[in-house]
Task: structure prediction
Amino acid sequence: MLTFVLSELAPGNFFDEMKLNPQISAETIAGLKARYALDQPLYVRYARWVESLAHGEMGFSFAYDTEAMPLIWSRAKNTLLLTITAMMIAWMLAILAGVWSATRVGRAGDRVCVATSSVLLSVPELVVALLLLVLAVKTRAFPVGGMVGLDHDTLGAGAKLRDLVWHLAIPAAVLVIGAFPILFRHVRASMMEVMQAPFIRAARSHGIHGRTLVFRQALPAAANPLISLFGMSLAGLLSGSLLVEVITGWPGLGPLVLEAIMGRDFYVVIGTVMLSTLFLVGGTLVADMALVAFDPRIRTDG
Amino acid sequence: MMKQKTRVWLAGIFLGMLHVCVLFAGFFAPYNPAAQNRDLPYAPPSKIHFVDPSGRFHARPFVHPTIPDPENYDAYLEDKTHNCPVRLLVRGDSYAIGGVFHSNLHLFGVEEPNRILLMGTDAYGRDQLSRLVFGGQISLTAGLVAAILSLGLGLLLGAISGYYGGWFDESAMRVTELFMALPWIYLLLAIRAFLPLQVSPVQAFLLIVCVIGVVGWTRPARLIRGSVLSAKERGYVLVARGFGGSDWYLLRRHILPEMTGILLTQAAILVPQYILAEATLSFLGLGLGEPTPSWGNMLAALQQYKVISSCWWMFAPAVTLVIISGAYFVLSDSLHRLESASNQQ
Result:
């Protein structure tokens, strides 16, 4: 498992090296270049960059004239706030709806759920975001853009929270709508499979019914594929919301990286890609470990 | 069983018709997509009438010309004094189909200089319907070509890995893991970031297609590798090998035909993803720029408050995207079910 992570990290650096392509040197003034050591050959800069990485830094942002790492991290926190909220809501909804659907396959409620998820599945995120934005603009019930209102600093603690939640609603809803159908389908499929297993029939004949049967017996047995899926959700925490952030004006990593690309602020781009790759690898790792912890059938040795 | 096949056919025919529409964009679109009309920015769609202001019924539908409201900035009125009957097969702006066949015949239109604006106009008064149809040329082709690129790469590398195994297999699979670990949208953006920002539309198009196509080769490659692995152990393949069939013969004659199902299903999944990827890049301003229409850069207009709040017809590309991805979803779902049904037999 360790080699897996290592093999993923090592070529990741190679990619970054490729991205250090010194196209920017033609556009930057010589003085600035010297300051950021851009006039050095590629391998020198790469070495220095790796060295700074070892110190926990990630180079410099030219546009913001600060170190890239704190900048990225401050934005990443906003992104995480948004995506973690959305992920939790989506998972809760998906598990509830999926379990409910799987216990009544073929009946009206199940059909409605499946049809809804199919429709949602074919509506692209871009369109969902735009539609919700229109809704927000038309009804004026939700603010558009930014993370907090203009008067945020003057508000009390309770009102501050409310303000934040209000701003969070639209981007989070887009993400939930995007993630829900996929999660729902997986939950439903794996629950359906388990509900037909002999041990469920045995449990039924022992007189275990209703909620106890579904949540104590069936759900844990159906959890394995879901844990892998959860790892994927974790992995996408930083990278999944770029478009939504840009459209709804959430000040997360998305707008930052877009700006950095336009402005050729490449240490920021590299840093962001690195960080989200780290999350991807980390998420997969966490999922694998959770799977081992959860299911005694999976062994790490041999 | 029959039902799935019907669904595949229906979705396939629908998508085929869309592609024909887009291929003959010049014919189906009433105007040149780049022709501006600065007097009519953000004009709403023309209403189709059958009954004129005097109450008389016309069998041939007509529109009133759209004119700016003299009292109200940004508002439009219908010029009720003129009736412009909608005619089929009219002569208008000239266009070329596939760069070879020139014509100026359009499916429908009204007498010049009046204009019929079935989907309104954009900021420069360009006909939204024409832009939608021409934009489809870019968006749909981008999706198809990128998918072919991905599947081609996937088929080639997957087949070699699965068939020969060994060090090539090992390294190819490590590379797919690497590609899968990278967040694809950031990867796209990063690649785009280190390529020149100002490029001609044709170059930009090729660039986007290549980037999108190359990023997505991993999943088909892994699927194909897996099924080549199982296919090469089948009885008839082993027999053919026993009779002295060469590697190339075995692959071509016995193994690759097995892959058609996977390829088709993957294509139906990938094409809409790629259409969306192109739209996303263009939406963010990293894809195709003006004046070439694409669904992504048409949607980019919605980033303005005025447009998103009052110009509902600017959502046409979004609706089209939903319809297309819906059709592809039906297609891939049914193909997948057909495939798993035939595997079970």
User: Anything to note?
Assistant: DSSP finds 13 helices and two strands in chain A. Chain A touches chain B through 48 residues (CB under 8 Å). Chain A has two domains: 2-55, 72-298. Residues 2-55 of chain A form one domain.
